[in-house]
Structures are given as C-alpha cells and as structure tokens.
Write a structure and sequence with these properties.
alpha/beta; globular
Amino acid sequence: MTRAGPSAVAILVLAALALAPPRPASADEALVDLLRADGQVIVMRHAATDRSVGDPPGFRLDDCSTQENLSEEGRAQAHRVAAAFTARGIPVGRVLSSQWCRCLETARLAFGSAEPWAPLNSFFRDRTLEAERTREVRAFVSERPATGNLVLVTSR
C-alpha cells in the first residue's frame, strides 16, 4: 500500500472515531497510531446542521444568516471531535476549511482555528468547478505536512 493508502483510511474513519460510541480499542489503535505520527491529511465533513433551513437562493458566503448553519447537535459533535483528538494525542498542524459558515464553525470548534480556502467550497450548484477544485486540492495535499496533520473541513 502506498503512503496515500493509510491516509485514505484516516479520511473515512476519523469521524467515526470522534462521533461513534466507544468501541474496542484494538479496532482504532492502528488509525490513531498513524494520526499520532504526523504527516497525514484528514478530510472531514462539517458537523450536523439544521436541515430544515437549507441554503436559500441568493445566500452569501460572507453572511452566515443566509446559510444552513450548525445545529446544537452539530456544535456538540465538533466539541467531541476536539475531545477525541486531545484524548488520543493526535497533533493538528494546519486547518483549512471551506468558506461556508458551517464548515468554518466546525473547524474552529474542533481545532481552535481555521483558514478559509475556496478550493474546499461546494461545487454543488456549479459542477463546472469540480475538475479545477479537485486538481487544486490534490496538488495541495500531495505535499504532506512536515509536522502535525493537515485537516481539511468541507461540505457534502
């Protein structure tokens, strides 16, 4: 398996570590050891939102009141992510987030800070952006972090 292989596993399993009920430790130990060792790229979706609101037509990225935002449960989930990383000693270096408020809030609650990064923005309403944004993200993550883990928080 290439170096990218374990990171792909980390991407898919990380949220389960933080949000799932406790499980036998042996099931998670290899992943936690990998994440403790630095240099991984962790991609996570924003925490739970109030899905009854949705993003209305004409929403603005610079105005959270026009967007679907985190619910109280979503904020609790982000806090659980923070607690899981701290309890397991998983180092976090840089945190990049989609510019959407729900992503930024998830990242800030879970990791303390986040840098907005447009390539992580949703292309749900404009699929013509998909190839370009995917290329940008792939190019960026091809250089692994020297210290800590790189966390990317995105939507859907």
